[in-house]
Design goal:
The chain has 63 residues and is mainly alpha-helical. It is 71% helix and 0% strand. The radius of gyration is 26 Å and the shape is elongated.
Length: 63
């Protein structure tokens, strides 16, 4: 009888955990303001420039 109770409680915990993962999140999505969009674009631009400079500064491969 004790083993059945243990298995039953474990099943409940597992199912409860699965329901949490598939459920709707507890927070609302934040709307992006214009300043946030500009910041994101400038970060992407800086990253692209860094990658371009890294490739340009690397020594050429002679094959």
């Amino acid at each position: 009888m004790g083993l059945e109770n243990l298995i039953g409680s474990l099943k409940k915990k597992v199912l409860k955990g699965l329901k949490k993962k598939t459920g709707v999140s507890d927070y609302d999505k934040i709307e992006k303001s214009d300043s946030m969009r500009v910041e994101i674009q400038s970060r992407k631009a800086r990253k692209l420039i860094q990658n371009t400079l890294k490739v340009a500064d690397s020594p050429p491969c002679s094959t």
